[in-house]
Structures are given as C-alpha cells and as structure tokens.
Amino acid sequence: MNIPAQAPLHLLHRVNDGAFSTHSRDPHGFPYPTALPFAPTALHTPMLLISHLAEHTRNLQADARAGFLVAHSIDGRVLEGQRLTLLGTFETAPADQQRELARRYLRYHPDAARYLELGDFSFWVMTVTRMRYIGGFGAMGWLGGEEIDPLEPISAADEATLCQFCDSDSRRPAHLDLLGIDRYGCDLRLNGTRNRFTFDKPKTSNEELKVALLDCFARQP
Description:
- The protein is of the alpha+beta class.
- It has two domains: about 5-150, Electron Transport, Fmn-binding Protein, Chain A (Pnp Oxidase, Chain A); about 155-220, Split barrel-like (Alpha-Beta Barrel).
- Helices cover about 30% and strands about 40% of the residues.
- The strands form two sheets. Strands 1, 2, 3, 4, 5, 6, 7 and 8 form an eight-stranded antiparallel beta sheet that branches.
C-alpha cells in the first residue's frame, strides 16, 4: 500500500458531490444509490442535507449502514483519477448541532438555503468505519476510519475567526471565497469554481494558519 499522506482527506475536500448508497427497505436488501452534494465536517467526514421524506431517510432509519463514494476525474476519465469509498453509518445530527452544521454547509453550497427554509431537511453525518482509496497505479489500499486525521480538529469558533480574518484582509483576491479551513489546507471558490489549497505541512496554531492563508492569497493569479 502506497498512499500519500492525507490523500483521502484532500480528496474529500476537493469535490462537491458524491454517490450515496443505503440499504433499500422495499425491495428489501438492495443497494439504493443516488448522487448528492455534500460538505466535509471538521472531522473530514461527509455531511448530507436530506429531506425527512426522502427514501434514504427511511432506509437509514431501518439500517444506518451506508456507503459513500467521492471521485475526482481527469478530463472525464474517472479511472485515471482519485477515488475514495467510505463505509460506515449515518446518523442525523443532534438538534443543538444543526445550526452550526448549516452555517458550514451553506459556505460550500449557498443554494441549499432554499431547502433549509422548507423546514423539512436535516443534516446527517457519517461515522467512517473503513475506507478504500485508489489514487492510481500502486497507490491504493484499505484504511481505518480513524486514519483520516490523527490531529485535533479546528474548533468551529476558531474557524469562524479565521474566516472573518480572511474576509476582512485586503490581500484576499476579490474573486476568492473561503469555504473552510483545516490543519492541512483550505477549501476555496475561485471565480465560481471549487478548489483546494494544500499547506506544505500541518498547521497546529491559529497564527500558523493565518500565515498559511496569506500565502494562499499571494499564490492566486
């Protein structure tokens, strides 16, 4: 197994959508897949916004086990890109976490505000048991869910402070929107296109993160 450090984590932060598969209730036992937008949590696991009336909600209430696939293709050639299959369980987030998850999700998917206004959607968060990463010839293998990130995540309060710092800094390019920050990189929207800026090494303090973000700004065209 020859998987570059944090490769699964960076892939999870690089894409907008994934393939979500639950266990069908009727017909019973069949995989029931669909494509859904998602956002990474602070723990780098997928969170989904799902209607209470969706078939997936009913499936998860009967069996919380599910699979989630993310892929980043090269010029549409999916077999030449990176793929990550996550296996685990999905649970609806507690009521006291829904608002914070909404703030984070809307940074990644601002158009989802219209679904939240309906009041019939909730956030579901994945707990990853195992994952299989494929990054090209020889770069593939199974990993445990706990191997996504061994470091303590950035708190929601610290991330909000860093986002405010970026929004108010005059060096931020006008065409850049900051979506999220973690110890390994930051998620961006550049001229309307999703992107990921990876740091040279993990940043363990807010001051290091600020320096890394300013470096990110300076490197943008």
